[in-house]
Amino acid sequence: MATLVVLVLVAAVLGSVFYWSGRYGDPKRNRGTSLRRAASAHTTRDGRPKKAYATREEAEAHARSTGPAGAMSAYKCGTCDKWHVGH
Known about the structure:
Order of helices and strands: HHEE
Number of domains: 2
Structural class: alpha+beta
Mean pLDDT: 76
């Protein structure tokens, strides 16, 4: 009986962590870092969809054109497996 109570308690804690992390996290936290890695989590800090590039070269060319050298860089995304530009 005690084992069942502990399992139910653990499931409730895990469920609440996943629920609250996706909806009510720190407002300064990037939306893309949600524990739920869904399409809606693939957005910029202000909620716009991230711009994806098919190749590293395209992303690096865009990074060079957006500001001072070294300010932006290209990285491969673990969510969509494409390239993005970021700080």
